[in-house]
Structure prediction request, 332 residues.
Amino acid sequence: MKTLEKDELKEILIKNWMTHDAMWFYHCLQECGIDKTNKLNKAAVRAMGIIEIKRIQKALGVDKVGTFEDFKSLNDAIWGIVKGEFMKFSYGYPAKNVFRGDFDKCFAYEGIKQLGAVGQYQWGIFERIYGWLDGLGMKYSVSPQVNGCMMHTEGRCFIEITFTFDK
Amino acid sequence: MKKGKLTAQQKEKLLRNIWLLHDGRWFLKSVEEFGFDTATKLNLAVVKSIARTEIKQLLAEADFGEVRNMKDLQALMETAALLYFPEEHKYAFRVVDSNTFVGHVLECYVHKMVSKAGMAAIHRCAAKLRFDSWCQAMGLDGEVINEKDTGSCNGTCDIIFKIKW
Prediction:
């Protein structure tokens, strides 16, 4: 048996976590249909995100996010913890108070497509980010406002979140 | 903002805990939406599926090869437990004989979480299902015995693996 490197361990944990999430989605879909599954998926991930950010803050020793620079530092640290190699997206800060994420490929879209439910699927990943921001007590606006799966309808997916920091 | 840098071990611990948190939110939201019976049915189905995946994933990534005897099983169980069980889960493994492996659960993390939510009396333990799936994924012929359920275990139990080699 080979000894697993720290990056490999992290990747296994994230992959299995996302698969576990997908299993919940799949079994809910079989039992209760797409509408209730969408509702549950979004509620579960948002509730998780609110607590997740508190745990990450505590681990990092970050108490308050008072400036856009604070947010950028925390956001970079979060993705350094929770992003797997298989998650193909990039993000940046195109202007002050603006976060932008661009997805080249989306593992959730690919998974839901396999289940044959992508037409009615409502993306849950952004709910996680909203959970973080809600947990941090931040004010923000989101563009574009999309309810379904943008990758399915437009062949691309992005999000811009604008904050209201003075500094 | 005070900036911290996490070690690989701290990141691992966080990921494991947030993963469990996410699973817990799915369960609680299911209870709210459908009631306890349907949420339990869903949880057991999910455990069965993910258990197969998690052990296959580990076997592949660790290049483990075939599980051919008790020594292999013990090594794999120890690795899997370190990877997948949170620190709060206290356990001890024991090889009884060449066909019997026991996991003594001393403090169960699931029992702890379910008790906190006030659901211990009605919760159904998924440990047997999880380890049955592990054995199937390892290609083992045998059975997993766990005589207790969440309502009767008080956070401790013995999970017995009887394997025919």
